[in-house]
Amino acid sequence: MTSTAGSSSTPAHNAPLPPSTTSTARSSRIAPHSHIKGLGLDPEGFALLDTAGFVGQNQAREACGVIVDLIKSRKFAGRALLLVGGPGTGKTALALAVSHELGAKVPFCPMVGSEVYSTEVKKTEVLAEAFRRAIGLRIKETKEVYEGEVTELTPSESENPLSGYGKTVSHVVVGLKTVKGTKQLRLDPTIYEAILKEKIVVGDVIYVEANTGAVKRVGRSDAYASSYDLESETYVPLPKGDVHKKKELVQDVTLGDLDAANARPQGGQDIMSVMGSLVKSGRTEVTEKLRKEVNKVVQNYVDQGVAEVVPGVVFIDEDIECFTYLRMAPTVICARSGGSA
User: At 200, which CATH number?
Assistant: First the structure.
């Protein structure tokens, strides 16, 4: 499918512009396309005059809006979109606008021709990694957790048997409060280390997984909300229900994340493992055997209903050689400068 980003829909150079109802305040730009916030379409899919940072290219924006609808409905996976036009006609801006319209939950992997050249990795391998990063996996899991606002955080110290003078944390007492009640937990010292790592204090809303002991800070309780105009803290309401509950946790990863995690596992602490990590500091390829094993595990999760595959988008800018290796991509957007397609 081809969408031509030409100058046919751009107003003439001497044509008077219609009056704009938007603010005349100058917006700050920190990058060439940081002002692009979306395609700027109305609910019917027609391009608006000056919206979301776009001016002109109405036909190309409307065509990209159709592509966005197809991607969201998962009817465009395995197909490609080619954006053709001269330099400066908005091909890259259209692709970035598509990524904004899809949202943060849909993987979008942009790349340019200069990224594919390496002395250690083949060009097809770089493209394969990009395609794997553009295929998301949404994992849904129901776990038993202890969730609530921290009302008490008291570590208990005892004499260290290995040292005559030092002390060590034997356990930590954590009080959690919800709308329905309160509960006091006596936790292991290793969980206290996770609490210190998350920088949890009294007044934070957290949850602790019952099986693994993993601690996650959700935010600050809105009862501690201050009157500051600007603040980096995220305030959340007091959790409802009991402290001990079953909660559905959703995690978004990509196949590229799973490949990287399995290709570089954490080694031991002996001297040979440390030396091996120093010697093998360069970039290495992920083998096809490992990818098949990851695919097998992912397929098992999908069959069980635990995970859901989310096809994403790969955007390749200005590299004609990359266009011949596109059979593994979920959705591809290509752009080239020049004449007609």
Answer: 2.40.50.360
